[in-house]
Each structure stands twice: as C-alpha cells, then as structure tokens.
C-alpha cells in the first residue's frame, strides 16, 4: 500500500470505531463481526489478510475473534476504512503482543487501508508516500504518517451526509481504474504535491482561508480526475452539488467555508469553529433529507483494556 503522493487528513472528535480482538487458539478460522453482522466476502478477506500479517510478525498462529463497530456509515465515503483499520491495527497488535510505537502502528495500519496510517494520530496528520524503488522492506519503512505542526487554527468540519448507503464502486477499484485510464491522473498527482507544500505552510500560518481553498481545489480536482476515467467513476450526486452551491453561497455572504470530499457523494465543509453552527444551519436547509453534524479535530487511537462494552 504505497501511494503515489503524500496526503493529509484531519482526525475528527466524532464517529469513532471500536474494535475488540481476542486470540482464539481453539478456533479453526478467524471470526469477524462488522457492525453487528458476520463479515463476508471482500470485507472478511481484508481483515483476515491483515491478521495474517500481524500473526506473521508475532510468530503466532492463533486465529482471532474480531468484533468491530463503526459509528460512521461503512463504505459511504466517510472514511470507515481509515477508522476501522486504524482501530484493528491497535487492537490486533495488542492482542498478539506486538509492542509498536506510533510510527510502527501507522505503518502497520497502512497495510489494511492506506488512509488508516493517518488515523492513528489525532488532529492533522500527513502520510508520506515513501520510496517506491528498491527493496520492499525499505519501501515499507519509508511510508508512514505523522502529526503535522499547526498554527493558531480553530477549525470545524461540518459533515453533510447526503447518502449513507455503500458506494457502487469501492475506493480501491475507483483508484485503480483512475490510475489506469484517466488522462487527468498524472497532472493531478503532480499538482497534489504542490498542494501539500502550500497546505503545510497554510496550516502553520493558521490561515483557514488558504487551508480551505487548497482542500477544496484538491478534492474537486480528484473528482475531475475520476470523472475522466474510462468508464467514468462518478461519486457526485445531485445533493452533493446542492451542498457545493450552498458553500459558494456562504462564501458570498462572507463566511469562509470550503468543501472537501472523499471517494463518495458526501461533503465535508471546513470552516472556523465559531462559524460552524451557521454553516450547519445553512446545509440543513439545503439538504433537508440529509444528516448534518459538526465535528472538530479529535484524538487518535486509544487502547482500551478489558471489558469495554
Ligand atoms: P469508506 O469511504 O467508508 O472508507 P471504502 O470503500 O474505502 O469506504 O472502505 C470500506 C471498506 O472498509 C468496507 O467494505 C470494509 O471492507 C472495510 N472496513 C470498514 N470499516 C471497517 C472496520 N471497522 N473493520 C474492518 N474493516 C472495515
């Protein structure tokens, strides 16, 4: 899981994942419950492959019983995979007795879902793409996330969930198709590198307007890149565009608000903490059938011992 470009995220104070991993020497296979139902197909395969990696490192063959619950919609472009595999990395490492520091946990989480490497950390984190040439072990060591220094910034992220259903095309499939077929992919990758340099400076300066502008242009560019894939990957829904229009309206009214979107139809609006309620109110009017919630930067992973029910 080595990305083409470095990337940045903000870990939120809402919508956590809680994951319990118990070693089960008596079991013949891993048993995985995701959101209260037995995991199957690709979701099960990904967790088992991740556990295999942990078992290999720990030198233990024990199967495991995994119970994981997201509080965010799964597979809807709201980063459940980032949250889920960060939690699984922490819980599985503990269950199998791996003593890993935050950097090593970030690297491990990356193997489950690339974006999970960042979700180990609270607040803003950058994921280094790392080295792509040379030995696999060297490449693995070079690609991990770490916290990003931030100046005087008091941001909020207003999340507009316009469709909580699972996306038709998974992020992974969308990414592969885009890389393989989109003529816009290469320029987007190059401009993303520039965006990240600008973003680090904007975060350090505590300049919310610049942070928002960069996030918005990068996200819209990513969707344009996917739209140009063959066949097109289109996550933008009519309600997505309605939210984007509202964000423009807020800016026209003097409220610094900027949209960003992952691979999915749902929109996150970055603004000043002090403006968050106004932004949320505007979005609730714009998409009355959606769900709007206000988030702020939150903590990273936390290991809970014992019975956490
Ligand atoms: P999202 O935008 O929600 O991250 P993705 O398509 O990128 O959507 O990833 C969704 C997939 O991530 C799920 O189908 C499942 O395979 C995996 N996933 C999500 N949450 C968890 C979890 N808590 N534990 C293990 N795997 C998870």
From TrEMBL:
Natural source organism: Streptomyces sp. (strain KO-3988)
EC number: 4.1.1.33
Superkingdom of the source species: Bacteria
Keywords: ATP-binding, Lipid biosynthesis, Lipid metabolism, Lyase, Nucleotide-binding
Gene Ontology CC: one annotated term: cytosol
Range of residues in the leader sequence: none
GO aspect biological process, one term: isopentenyl diphosphate biosynthetic process, mevalonate pathway
Domain Mvd1 C-terminal: 158-289
Pfam families listed in its UniProt record: MDD_C, MVD-like_N
Family: Belongs to the diphosphomevalonate decarboxylase family.
Entry-linked InterPro entries: GHMP_kinase_C_sf (IPR036554), Mev_decarb (IPR005935), Mev_diP_decarb (IPR029765), MVD-like_N (IPR053859), Mvd1_C (IPR041431), Ribosomal_Su5_D2-typ_SF (IPR020568), Ribsml_uS5_D2-typ_fold_subgr (IPR014721)
Protein's name according to its UniProt entry: diphosphomevalonate decarboxylase
GO terms assigned for molecular function: ATP binding; diphosphomevalonate decarboxylase activity
First-tier enzyme category under EC: lyase
Domain Diphosphomevalonate decarboxylase-like N-terminal per the UniProt entry, residue ranges: 1-132
């Amino acid at each position: 899981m080595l990305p083409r470009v470095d990337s940045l995220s903000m870990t939120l104070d809402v919508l956590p994942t809680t994951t319990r991993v118990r070693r089960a020497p008596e079991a013949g296979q891993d048993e995985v419950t995701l959101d209260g139902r037995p995991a199957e197909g690709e979701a099960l395969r990904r967790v088992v492959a991740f556990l295999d990696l942990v078992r290999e490192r720990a030198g233990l063959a024990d199967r495991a019983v995994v119970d994981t619950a997201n509080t965010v919609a799964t597979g809807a472009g709201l980063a459940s995979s980032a949250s889920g595999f960060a939690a699984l990395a922490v819980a599985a490492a503990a269950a199998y007795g791996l003593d890993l520091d935050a950097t090593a946990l970030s690297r491990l989480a990356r193997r489950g879902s690339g974006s999970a490497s960042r979700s180990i950390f609270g607040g803003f984190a950058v994921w280094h793409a790392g080295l792509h040439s040379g030995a696999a072990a060297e490449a693995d060591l070079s690609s991990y996330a770490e916290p990003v220094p931030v100046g005087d910034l008091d941001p909020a992220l207003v999340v507009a969930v316009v469709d909580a259903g699972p996306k038709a095309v998974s992020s992974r499939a969308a990414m592969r198709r885009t890389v393989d077929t989109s003529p816009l992919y290469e320029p987007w990758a190059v401009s993303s590198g520039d965006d990240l340099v600008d973003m680090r400076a904007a975060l350090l300066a505590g300049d919310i307007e610049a942070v928002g502008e960069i996030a918005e242009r990068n996200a819209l560019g990513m969707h344009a890149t996917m739209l140009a894939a063959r066949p097109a990957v289109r996550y933008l829904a009519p309600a997505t565009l309605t939210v984007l229009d509202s964000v423009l309206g807020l800016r026209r009214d003097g409220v610094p608000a900027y949209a960003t979107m992952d691979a999915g139809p749902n929109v996150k609006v970055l603004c000043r903490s002090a403006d968050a309620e106004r932004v949320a109110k505007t979005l609730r009017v714009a998409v009355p059938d959606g769900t709007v919630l206000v988030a702020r930067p939150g903590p990273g992973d936390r290991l809970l011992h014992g019975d956490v029910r």
